[in-house]
Structure formats: C-alpha cells, structure tokens
Amino acid sequence: MIVAMQDQASDEAIQNVIERMVELGFNVHRTTGSVQTILAGVGTPSHFDVSEFKVLTGVHDAYRISSPYKLAGRSFRPEGTRITFPNGVVVGGEEVIIMAGPCSVENRDQILTSARQVAAAGAQFLRGGAFKPRSSPYSFQGLGLEGLKLLREVADETGLLVITEVMEISQIDVMLPYIDCFQVGARNMQNFNLLRELGYVRKPVLMKRGIAATIEEVLLSAEYILSGGNYDLMLCERGIRTFETYTRNTMDVSAIPVLKKLTHLPVFADPSHGVGIRDLVPPMALASVAAGADGLLMEMHPNPDKAMSDGAQSLRPEQLTELVKKLKQLAPVVGRTIAEGVTATAPAK
Amino acid sequence: MIVAMQDQASDEAIQNVIERMVELGFNVHRTTGSVQTILAGVGTPSHFDVSEFKVLTGVHDAYRISSPYKLAGRSFRPEGTRITFPNGVVVGGEEVIIMAGPCSVENRDQILTSARQVAAAGAQFLRGGAFKPRSSPYSFQGLGLEGLKLLREVADETGLLVITEVMEISQIDVMLPYIDCFQVGARNMQNFNLLRELGYVRKPVLMKRGIAATIEEVLLSAEYILSGGNYDLMLCERGIRTFETYTRNTMDVSAIPVLKKLTHLPVFADPSHGVGIRDLVPPMALASVAAGADGLLMEMHPNPDKAMSDGAQSLRPEQLTELVKKLKQLAPVVGRTIAEGVTATAPAK
Amino acid sequence: MIVAMQDQASDEAIQNVIERMVELGFNVHRTTGSVQTILAGVGTPSHFDVSEFKVLTGVHDAYRISSPYKLAGRSFRPEGTRITFPNGVVVGGEEVIIMAGPCSVENRDQILTSARQVAAAGAQFLRGGAFKPRSSPYSFQGLGLEGLKLLREVADETGLLVITEVMEISQIDVMLPYIDCFQVGARNMQNFNLLRELGYVRKPVLMKRGIAATIEEVLLSAEYILSGGNYDLMLCERGIRTFETYTRNTMDVSAIPVLKKLTHLPVFADPSHGVGIRDLVPPMALASVAAGADGLLMEMHPNPDKAMSDGAQSLRPEQLTELVKKLKQLAPVVGRTIAEGVTATAPAK
Amino acid sequence: MIVAMQDQASDEAIQNVIERMVELGFNVHRTTGSVQTILAGVGTPSHFDVSEFKVLTGVHDAYRISSPYKLAGRSFRPEGTRITFPNGVVVGGEEVIIMAGPCSVENRDQILTSARQVAAAGAQFLRGGAFKPRSSPYSFQGLGLEGLKLLREVADETGLLVITEVMEISQIDVMLPYIDCFQVGARNMQNFNLLRELGYVRKPVLMKRGIAATIEEVLLSAEYILSGGNYDLMLCERGIRTFETYTRNTMDVSAIPVLKKLTHLPVFADPSHGVGIRDLVPPMALASVAAGADGLLMEMHPNPDKAMSDGAQSLRPEQLTELVKKLKQLAPVVGRTIAEGVTATAPAK
C-alpha cells in the first residue's frame, strides 16, 4: 500500500499513519519531499482496507498496490487452467466450447427436442434452468427436481454434458447426482456463502459476472470458490448494466481479453443475456470468440415464440446450427478450433 | 400492453400478434392508420413478457402499460403503510426514525458502548452485523450467533430496537428470537428465494435497493415479500453504482420522493453506504430527510479508526449527536418531526 | 506519481521506468522490497500522463498522487470564492442564491410574465435560453439575439440579473452587452476552446457538470477558465447519466459537499435537469441546500403545459413561491440564509 | 404517440390530453377499457415532446411510437449508404476499411514515418490530430494549421486519405483544402451548431458516439448532418462510460449490429479509445469486424512510449501489420473482405 500525505501534513499525522500501517503488518518506507511525504508499505498483510487510510487526518490518498486476490491471479498458474469433464471434453485448452439450450426446462418434449438440436448443432453442453429466479413473483418459477431429472435423462441420450444454475446452498446436494457443472448466476456472484460452499464441492463451476460487478470483484468472488479448494472454475461475461437500454445489458466484450490477462481461469461469454435480442446473438458470439473467449453459453429454444421465459433472446435451432458453422471458420484466425460435437455413449432408449 | 406495428406491416404479421395477445388473455383493440397499425391490449394477464412481443415479425415496439407490481403500488394503500414496533415506535408516520450502529458486532464492549452512544444521540434502532458478507474471503466475517445475542442484550439494556442483516434462509429462524427487524442487503435484493421466505415471517423487514437495481426492480422485489403476506416492509436507498468513483456509490436521493409517490411503503436512506466517506454522511442525511425520507440508517462506531469493517464511513459518536440535533431542526420544514429517543424498559444490569 | 513494479520485475524494466520519470522532471525515490520495487516520483512536472506508465514493461500499476488541477483546488483560496454582481448580489457567501426562469425565451409576454413571477417569488437571477441546442433538428431552436434583448429588458424592469447559456465562441461578444452571467451547459463542459475564451472574459460564468463527467473532470474544465484569468466561476451539479430511467438523469447530490471540499468555487444545483419531473424539483431543491449548495438554478414557466421546451420539468409559478418559503426555513439549519429578493432599480416603463 | 391514462382517470383529464394531442396535429383514437383509457395518436407531427404528456394530470405513461429521426433510419435507404472517395476507396460496401495513425501530429518526421507504416500495413486512411482538445489545459494542444499541411503532404506521398478531427465551426474552412474526411469527436457529438454546419459541407464526415450517448441520440445527431444535405456520413462506436475502470471506456460492441439494423449509414469502430490499452486493441478490432463493422479507426505511433498523447493506447507499427493480416483472414467469415492497401498516385518527392 502507498499512502500519499497532503502537502505540509503534520508530523503527528504522518506518525499516526505509520503506526497504523505497522500495526497491520506493513514495513513502512518513508520518502520525504520538500512539500509532500509518501509512505510505502511493503509486505502484504492478509487483510487491510485501503479506504480506511483515505480518511485518516493528513492523508491525500491511499493506493492498494497488490492484488486483493491471489489464487485467481494469472501468476498462480501461468499456463492456464484446464478442466476435463467425464466424457473427455476439455475446457480451457485450444478448443472453444459451446453450451446451449433453453432458459427453462418446461417439459420432457421441449427439453428432449432441445437436447437433440443442441447436439446436432455441434455443442458439448446442454444448459437449462430447473430452479428459476424471476424478477416478478408472478412469473413461471421452474420445474425444480423434476427439471434436473429431465436434463440428465436427455443429456445421457444425446451425449451432452449438463450445466444448470444453483441458487442456494440447499440445492447443491440435490443437484450433484444430475449435473456436470454448476452455474452461478449474475445475481449470486456476491452470494458469498453460496460461493464458499461451492468451493468445497468437487464438481466444476461456471460463475457469471454480476450485472454491476467490476472485473476486480469478479476475481474476488472467484477467490472464494478457489480458496475452498475447487479449482475447476470458469468465469463468464454476460453483460453489465449501463445507461443504454436498446439492449438488455451492455456486453463488455473487452472483459474477455482483460480476464484472460489477469487470471488463469477459462473465460466464457453469454451473448444471449449480454444483448437480450435473438438476432444480435450470432454477431456477438462471433465477436466474443474473436476477442479470445474459451467458450460460449447461449440460449436456444425449439420454438422461442412459445418459450415460457427469455424467448426474445433464444436462438432458433437453425440459427445455432448456422452460427456454429461460422464459428468453425473463425476460430482458426485466433489460433483456436471449435470442439467436436458429442455422441451418445449411453444406449439410446 | 400496446404493440405498435411497423409501417406497412403485413396483415399476417398483425394477425399473428393479435393471436398471441389473445392467447395471453388480452382483449385487443386495433387502430389502423394510413401507414401504421396499433394494437392495444386491454385487461392485464397475471404474467406476460413484453420483450417477447418486441421481436415478433412486423413489430416496431411494444410497451407494458400496467405496473408489473400490484401490492407494492401506492394505490393498494393510498394512506401509506405504518409499522408499529413492540416498544411503540412507529415507522411510516409523521416521525422520522433513526437507526444507527457499527457495521459489525466485534465484541461485547464495542457493541455496548455503541448502543449507549446511539441511544444517547436519540436514535430508536441499533444496527450491527452478526453475519458479514464481505467481498474478500480474507476479511473479517462476523461473530454469527454470538453477535445476535450481544445485540439483543445491549438493546434491552438501552431500550433500542435491533435491526440486522439476514443473508440466507437458514438464518431466519436463528435470528427471530433476537431481533426486531430483518435487513435485506443490497446484494440480496434479488435473492428471490430469501425474499419469499421473509414474506412468510411475521417480523418487519427493511429491504435495501440493489447497487444496480432500477426503481421498478425494487418494487418487484418488494412484491415478493408482500405477496407472502408480510406487509411490514420498509425500502432503503443506499447508493447505486455509476461511473463516479470519488464516492463509494452515487446516492440517488431522488429515488426517495419517487418511491414515496409510487409506493405506500416507508422509505429509508442509508447515507453511509451511499457515499462511503464519514464527513459526507451528515450533509447527505440532512438531504435525505429534506427529500422526504421516513428514516435514516447510518453507521456509527465508538472508534472508527479501529473498526474491523467500514471504518471509513462510520460516524464518530459526537458526529451522530450533532447530526440528530440538526435533523430535529430540519424535519419541521418538511412537515415532520424526529422520533423521540428511547429509554430502557428492561431493568438495567 | 508512484509506480509499483510487478513482483520480480527485471532491473532493466525498473531502470527504464526510472529514466522515463526523470525525463519528465521527477526526482525518483526507489523502495526495494523482497519481491516488489516501488518508485516514488517527487516533484510534479507541468504535464504527464499516468496511463503511459501503466503499460510500460514490468509495471504493475501507476498512480498520480497530485491533483491535475491547481487553481481550482481548495488550497488555492481556502476561504472560498465570492462573486459580487453589479446590483450587490454576492454568490459564495452565507446567502444562498436563487436563479429561475423558463427553459427558452419564447416571446415578450412570456418572458416578462416569467420575470415578474421569478422576482415576486424572491429570486435574484432570471434564467432563459436564447440560443437553444436541442437534440432533434426539428425542435424549436430559440429566438437568438432577439431573446437576449428581451431578457435584458425584462430583467431591468424587475431588478433581476440575467444568466443565459453560451454555446460557442462567436456568441460571447454578442451576449456581453445583455447578460450578467454566462452559463456553460453540460454538453459544452469539455468544449475546451469555448472554456479558454471564457477565461479571457471579465464576466462571471456558471459551468454545469457534463452528463458523464467525473468530479475530477469538472475541476479540470474549471481550470481552463481559471487559467485564462477569469476567477468568477461557479460550478453546477445537474444530474449524471446512469442506468435509472425513471428520472431524466440521476442527480448526484453528494457532488455538492464533495466539490465544496475540493474547490473554493461556489457550487450550485439544478434540480430541474437533475430529475426532469416538475413535482420532484422542490424536494430535490431542499435536499441540495441541505447538502450545502450555494445556490439553485431552476426552470419555471408561467404555463408549463404550453412551454415550447422542457415544460415537463418547469415549476408552476406558485410552486416556486412555495419552495422559496420552505428554503428560507431550511437554510438556517445549515448555517445559511436565502438571499433577499431584488427590486427594480431602473425606472419601470 | 400512445398515452395510457391512469385507472379511473376523470373525463376532464382525458379530454384535456386529447385536446393537447389534436393541437399538435395527431388524429386521436380512443380505446376505453373497464378501468383504463388508452389514447393512440396517429400521424406524426414534425415535433412533439413525449415527456410533456407524462406529467399531465391523469396520465399513467406516454410512449413515442415513431422514430424521432427520419433521414438516418434504415428505411430511408434500405440498401445502405456507400461513400466513394477521390482515390476510389469505397466505404459502406463489401470491403472493410482501415484508418490508422497517431493521436496527434507531432512533427514532420513522426507523421511521415507514421504514414509509411500505416500504408505498408495496408490501411486506406491516415488519421492524426492537428487541433487537440485535451482535458487538462496544461497538456499538448496540437500543431494546428501546420499539422494539417503535414498530414496532406505525407498522405499524398503515400497515397493515403486524410481524416482529422474538427472541433469548431471556424475550423471547417481551414481544414477543407487539406483533408478527405472530417471526424467529429465524442465530445462534439451533441455540438449541434457544428453538426448543422457540417451538413452544408460537401465532404464526408465520420461522427463518433458520445461517451454517454444512447444509440437513439447518435441517430438524432446524425439527423442534424443529414438534414443539411450531407449524406456522406459514417458513425463510429468508441466506448461508453460505465462503472468499469480497468479499461478507459467500455466498448459497446453490440452497438455495431444494432446500428447496422437501425440505420443505412456505415458503422466504424475505434477500439483504441474503446479500451485505452494497447494490447487490448487487436482482440477488440477483430471482435468489431466479427460483429459487422464497416471499418476500423485505430491509433498507431512509430514509438508509442514517446508519444505526446495517447501513447498507452497506440499500437506499435508491427502490431498493426500483424492485426491487418488477421483481419484479412477473419473478414470472409462474415462475408466481407479487407480493402486493398493504397499506393501513391502523386509523384513522391
């Protein structure tokens, strides 16, 4: 930490800041200029709050100079994290991964049709919500456990992996037998109790960026999961809230290369929530992979006009198929390939 | 809902939109102009998603014209909601309520001293966190149950009411015996499962606005609690995230009169989180009451420089005392008074 | 400036940064820790760009520790700036100043009626636009020179001072004979050529905060005017753009006490543009003065429903009168008074 | 326009709204439901302000249903606008255009070297600032006319076209002899007097999106230029201001496909200002073209570490060369090609 004192700050004020720094565990180096004194705190205590120093008497400003996260930082694992799934799919390698499916599991027919279309398009993961947090209490709230069972059944039939959203601690154990990957939604990115529990689980997690979360906050939240021992973590940009209302959110595509630089964790993009309008999803999916994304998470529905939730942003099946074709052409430009589609390993019924 | 068709939209497209509206339960009135057709849907189905209509073929734009919330709307209870606490304190009436205390309960001495100072300053509620969600996993995380017991003990000794933050469903029952009011933090304003459970409880709730929540989203979240049957709900503006970084957040003071107009629920302001800098709290507290707030929630610490969390934004005890004096002068300008301070009803030890 | 090197940065990288700092005119103090080196640059060159250092090889981060503005800083004139107008009105003293009037000068009748109502309510300044920058080319664009003449005429009749917006350099000389104060609108806060010219004029200026301007940028823009020698400058908070769309902008009331701390310049508030809805203007005006504003700038129209621009946010005459009464009660709470109303000194026609 | 009345609005209130609508030139169709009345105004008056209706007595909400811009709308020229430059370069066709060069023209050597490197990399336009608006009055302010002459000279030598920023009306005539395209910077996107004058010029204009401008505001500003008769207009996304501070701005990549849908004007992207960090420019340039951009505007400097402005975001020459190679591979994926590089047609000195 660096503390820059105000011009002509009193010796007493300087001494008080130094003492407070030493108390926290810093070694303090003092640079005295003709008008301004600067205090450099060397060594990083396990915890300190830089804003406390900003309001001490005589302080001009204070700067944290070390990252507040450690395990999530690129230097912890410079070669990058790779996550291997049971069927051999690897996230974080040269291959770009496709996750697609409806917002909600609505019924057996809908999810089975979805899974077949998603697999046919060449994706590796089936997404679909069983527990649906909706902003209105009067909206459809999901099928719950029944939805999980349907996801597993149709995934096994098609060879896909299952990713679904976990919203609270009590759902973790319920989900474990049915899924391949937990998804933490944007609204839970700072649900620290949930993150801590997911750190103790031995199943991969994909954590979405909160709607108003800075990149640093994304990495601090990642640290919660990593510090519990679960290193199979993926991050996902899905749009932030800005003044622009034409799109549902403003997709921060630059967060993808920024995160790739700051952390070793694989970085996904969710253009469906990023823009919220079906026809904008393909260009934004292409842009995301061009910018370095390790994978895409997208909504697709067999019949979006009849979807029980998020129909406006769900791709039609033929749009997904067309998009994956273009992605296959684009990926080599940035030194990547799109992962192979899956095939059912379990005997079809 | 209104659907404005594109100029020269085809009859087929218009017919398709009409059918979809009727399916949802609207009565549709059609206005055909020389170039543009407008469809007015009268009658409000229990649920519909206006964004689905925006992407239908031939649609220019679609507008929801009814509020998506019902119980939270002003017209549900035009006279305003009043909440009466066990010791006779009334929230939502002519009197403005003061809630103050430290960010976290740190130990018996600290919280007892805090309570005495808060009571002496003239407040009615003691605030203090027992379970602390922090953005870094390496920060102090609160005393838990022990903190709740300490809060109750010192509140009884001073006559104050207790408000503390609930972060997950499992904490509700743990907290019930010790507290007078649940606080839902900004990060949980869209934790819909938690909100739903709080709707079933018979204990008042103060819900903070999320850092990126629109005013409409605040009222939709309120609807979750109200629809469970718990009408003893207060809302609280505490700053939103904007591009300005000098302050911790940007306090949206105008949300206070806007909410007073849109809803019957009492509206509080939390200037401590709103600005994050101690010396800005008093002017923003005065501004909040001038703008119509029904109460204030503020952080005060006996020794902010040694606080384990949020020290930078905690008032010193003498600042709180001085502020309450000014508030007592200001309140009558807007037709209010500051509530009387409390006195211990339980025998002091 | 402080440059924090990355852990284990090479000697070559460190040397390169030191050389670049010395080149710019810094004296460099080096603190070498076991893993990290910190370079403190003492002495402030007239110009440097801290972002250039952030991208040099081996640099972790770089921090400007001095303010980039000098003349605008509080320490330049700790006692605060006072501006005295020809009729004796003083801005920046104990008295809070009221400026009011219609968005646009529409015709003689409208502006004369406005002036009389504004004076009767107790204000000191008449505002009104002669040159109107509008976001649509098809909207009313103002009366131009004719509007300026009307403003002067009715101001003389009522004893009010005139403030009106200047939009480009060529208008400065046209306006000088007719007005008492230039207003720089939010859209021109970074029109640096205009600001520079206004620095050479000897007539007060009120500069509004840009819709997306940080507080630091406001002060840098102020520096442009001050560095030309015009010290009669007032700043004005008028709302920033955020994700909230219920109000026209989000009024950053906390910018008022922040600016009062950082600069010696008087700070106004414009609640009309801040919220954009008539009935929200009075509570926000009260809040602004409670937070420390030196004056208010507000829109009032004799008949807002027929206004040619900004009718929705213009107060009705009786609302202004009522508001000034409340402001007179509120000001003493924060150690201020509302300035006396004016009386015509020129013989009335 | 649609006006939705409040439930049980009085007949008088409804009648008043209808009269006001008729006054403006609407034909009003009234839909009376059991609780709510809806008024549809058909026919679009040349000007009306929807916010005035929102505050009329008895009104629940009001919606503009026609675009406030006409000439800029896609339907005005569905096939898209193509702009042909003197040397045959066409913007808005199948070919993607590259504009590159330093932030400022610093001296003859620097701009000549830049031009050669830009041409060698395969670009068609040389960018460079002669008049530099800077946020600090103490920063380098540009070479002015001398800079324009240098730009023309080196462009002629290399065969490049010249684009440079115009900041005020008086500069238009000064610039005309030396340049091929005017650039309107983000800070001037709502300098309506400047836009109007540029509408009367017969030289192409590239207008950047303001830092806080909505997409609708971009198109309204475009309307100012188009309505003067200058149809050779290009738009440019260059980042908006959000809460994220890691990057200089947040580049709204989705604005590219949105604008392509809403308007016939060519859409550029400026990733240099969009992110502000050199190494993030190539991925964002690729993302922009993947999302449908018609061209790129980028900063490149022969020696960015010594640049007098914006060095941190300027590409090194070899980075530009490498990037253009990748762009040539990527463009065909989205049905485009990168335009051919230029060759000097004027005899080299």
UniProtKB/TrEMBL annotation, chains A, B, C, D:
GO terms for biological process: aromatic amino acid family biosynthetic process. Residues 84-331 form the DAHP synthetase I/KDSA domain. The keyword Transferase applies. It comes from the Bacteria. Gene3D superfamilies: Aldolase class I, Phospho-2-dehydro-3-deoxyheptonate aldolase, domain 1. InterPro entries: Aldolase_TIM, Class-I_DAHP_synthase, DAHP1/KDSA, DAHP_snth_FXD, DAHP_syn_2. Keywords: Transferase. Its EC number is 2.5.1.54. The keyword Heme does not apply. GO terms for molecular function: 3-deoxy-7-phosphoheptulonate synthase activity; aldehyde-lyase activity. Residues 1-66 form the DAHP synthase ferredoxin-like domain. Transmembrane segments: none annotated. This is 3-deoxy-7-phosphoheptulonate synthase. It comes from Granulicella aggregans. The lineage of its organism: Bacteria, Pseudomonadati, Acidobacteriota, Terriglobia, Terriglobales.
